[in-house]
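Work Package 3 (structural annotation) set out to generate three-dimensional models for the target panel prioritized at the project kickoff. During this period the team completed the workflow that converts sequence records into discrete structure tokens, so that structures can be stored uniformly alongside our sequence database. As a representative example, we reproduce one entry of 341 residues exactly as it appears in the project archive.
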Amino acid sequence: MAGNDNRHERRRNCSLITPKYPTPSIMNLKSIHDEVAALLSKTPAKVENRRRAFAALRRGLEKGLPFPLPRRRAWFSTTQTDTANASACARVQVLGVEAGELILGKASKSWEFVPNTKRYPQYAGARWAWSKNAADGKKIRDFLGECEKQSKADPANEREIQWQLANALGAKTPSLRQLGAVKWNKRFTEVGVSVTKDGKTGTGNIDLVVRRGKGADRGFLVFEVKGPEEKNVEEALKQALRYATALSIESNGGTKRNREDYHAVFESKGKETLQIDAAIVMADIPEVRCRAADLVSQYLADRGESAIERIGVLLYDFDAKAGAVRAWKWLEGRDPRNATP
């Protein structure tokens, strides 16, 4: 009886904190799965191009191309991998500022960095080797330093939160043990899928793919990260679940070679079906805690054919003055390192 009393008290408190939201149109994993599966079945060529792009990323890894990072923070996204030509490339950002693009050199002997000439026209024509080249390395570090000083560079940008989370994973923080950010060429990266955050055909950006557990409990988590001002739990959850569903279908629905490509890019030597689950990352405020607790239970109530088994809710404390996250914690009962009840 005490447990029931606690649940009733929590609901009463949440009703006082959380504003009234319209009922979401999608309320369970079955609906999410059916929606995404229908979209992808209509665009098989797009899905195959995504698989070809992963094969290209794998080839780039197998060649062992040098990829040391200049000693400055930088965020990467393979989302913009050239799926039409299946060639590997990545966008680079610093504190939310678009810095440029990383591409394979013509001879495929090194990665080259091309500055964003729309924002920095003075660097038109520049191509710097992103490798052990000392002269180019200094130019890249100096350029990224300029990006950090831009007026639009924002420590509260959600991609800066991603950067801090990726670097905290696998550290000594108890709440983040047994988790490791998937890295491409030893640097964490966003990953593209064939469904947008709004549930349409297009390119969606997975903020972080994270390895979870070991052995029989091994799997991957799709993390959707939101900035400290974001409070819309419904949209964050739908986005994370759509991306996780699309990634599961894209990676597991093709050939054995396709699965091996995804495993390789995700730093795994496995060949089996990839277990892909989801988690949202939001600021630790009362309305987020209350809304997430209710919605996750509703989504898990009916899985249908969905392969998603776990939904996590990671909360953080953001120090606005320092521009840094001070603590990471899981919503009670929503730690995806543990099996979902």
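DSSP finds eight helices and 14 strands in the chain.
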